[in-house]
Amino acid sequence: MYEEKKKTFAQALNNIFYLSLSQLPTPCVKGDLVTVQINKEDWLVGFEDFKNHLNGSITLHKGENLWSISSFAPKSANLRLL
What we know:
The protein has helices spanning 9-14, 40-51, 69-76, and strands at 28-30, 33-35. By secondary structure, it is mostly helical. It has a domain at 17-73. The protein has a two-stranded antiparallel ribbon. The protein is extended, with a radius of gyration of 20 Å. The termini are far apart. The mean pLDDT is 76.
């Protein structure tokens, strides 16, 4: 069976990934915005990846204690997710 070698954090930081500009979508200016077209197939793949990751931030007020992992679940239930 194929066994994938785990990389250390330092090895992951040293990875170099070259991407040719010709591989990127062509930007288009629409009013004040610069947009790119993404085909539906690629968008769906990205959307599926996004659904499995929590993206966001929590702003604490001055003097507020940091949240521990055990206290995060009850507190996060009260947060409004958009």
